[in-house]
């Protein structure tokens, strides 16, 4: 999937991880909110039908996880997709938390 472009857009309180595929006039996203020092909540994953079947949601999640490791923050998995993927990958436990200031 060499034509997949991943990026992060971040404001003071909210942000999103964005995926774009060459030749498709749409974008997928994982939205997040800052929940305190060193913690974000992954709130929603959205992938338009035109991008479905390309592994975009998983690529976005991996991008977010790499960002968390690099920047040293933890994630509250509110989004059902993120929560279900986390349940399948206990090795990600160091990147997740249930509430600001709490361990999972």
Automatic annotation (TrEMBL):
InterPro entries on file: Acyl_CoA_acyltransferase (IPR016181), Gcn5-rel_NAT (IPR045057), GNAT_YJDJ (IPR031165)
Recorded superkingdom: Bacteria
Residue span(s) of domain N-acetyltransferase: 9-97
SUPFAM superfamilies listed in its UniProt record: Acyl-CoA N-acyltransferases (Nat) (SSF55729)
Pfam families for this protein: Acetyltransf_CG
Protein name per UniProt: N-acetyltransferase domain-containing protein
Source organism (scientific name): Celeribacter baekdonensis B30
């Amino acid at each position: 999937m060499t034509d997949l472009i991943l990026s992060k857009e971040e404001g003071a309180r909210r942000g999103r991880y964005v995926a774009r595929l060459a030749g498709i006039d749409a974008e997928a996203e994982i939205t997040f909110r800052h929940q305190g020092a060193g913690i974000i909540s992954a709130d929603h994953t959205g992938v338009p039908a035109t991008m479905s079947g390309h592994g975009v949601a998983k690529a976005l999640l991996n991008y977010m996880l790499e960002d968390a490791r690099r920047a040293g923050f933890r994630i509250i998995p509110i989004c059902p997709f993120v929560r279900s993927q986390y349940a399948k990958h206990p090795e990600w436990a160091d990147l997740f938390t249930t509430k600001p200031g709490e361990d999972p």
